[in-house]
Amino acid sequence: MMEFTPHSVPKNTGWIEVIAGCMFSGKTEELIRRLRRAKIAKQNVKIFKPKIDTRYSDKKIVSHNEQVLPSILIEDINEITELSKDAQVIGIDEAQFFSNDIIKICNLLADNGKRVIVAGLDQDYRGIPFEPMPQLLSIAEYITKTLAICVECGNPADKTQRKTVSSKRVIVGASDIYEARCRKCHYLPEEK
Ligand code: ZN
């Protein structure tokens, strides 16, 4: 996990951190951990997530192990600019559900001196890079790839296995529909 040592914290500038991985890899937990530490340091923290993710809770950011922080639901990533004016640290969860405008917005926020921490799925259920995550990974100063554990063989896993057949890219769900798999054990649902 990325961790700043006191002498390496950037001064008088903003920056972008990206936490990328498959489902059940602890992305949201890691995002919450960083945001909570900033809050403890009395920094002004704002957390945003897309309206689409109504998995467990409407108004909060919730990881699979049920850690909770209050968050602001937005439909359009452009809403962040106005809503985060007084924030020093900005967290964005489920970034894969936002439009590519998020690239411009994150750069703008970081250029304005804010610490921007973005978490999201880096691949869809087929293992195809999930935009805008690839672009966010390239503009970030700090990148963390979280790995899960393959449900089949116990190897480190970076793929999200969909257990139902559907060609829709997004089906909101948790362990009822998805599980973590390694490269060797991952398959396309339509192939079985
Ligand atoms: Zn495996």
Beta-strand portion reads 25-35%
Main-sheet strand order equals 5-2-6-7-1-8
Number of DSSP helices?
4
What coarse outline follows from CA principal-axis ratios? Answer: globular
CATH architecture of the domain at 15-146: 3-Layer(aba) Sandwich
Q: Would you report the number of β strands?
A: 12
What is the CATH top level name of the domain at 15-146? Alpha Beta
CATH topology category name of the domain at 15-146: Rossmann fold
Main sheet attributes: strand count, strand direction, barrel closure: 6 strands, parallel
Q: Any idea what the CATH superfamily of the domain at 15-146 is called? A: P-loop containing nucleotide triphosphate hydrolases
Distinct ligands:
zinc ion
Question: Helical content, roughly?
Answer: 10-25%
CA radius of gyration is 16 Å
User: Average pLDDT, to the nearest integer?
Assistant: 89
Uncertain runs with pLDDT below 50, 5 residues or more? Answer: none
Terminal residue distance = 36 Å
Can you characterise this structure?
The protein has 192 residues and is of the alpha/beta class. It has a domain at 15-146: Rossmann fold. The chain has 4 helices and 12 strands. It has helices at residues 27-40, 79-83, 101-111, 133-139; strands at 15-21, 45-50, 60-62, 68-70, 72-74, 89-92, 115-121, 142-146, 148-149, 156-157, 159-162, 178-181. The strands form 4 sheets. A 6-stranded parallel sheet has the order 5-2-6-7-1-8, with helices on both faces. The longest helix has 14 residues, at 27-40. It is globular, with a radius of gyration of 16 Å. The model has no long low-confidence stretch (mean pLDDT 89). It binds zinc ion (ZN).
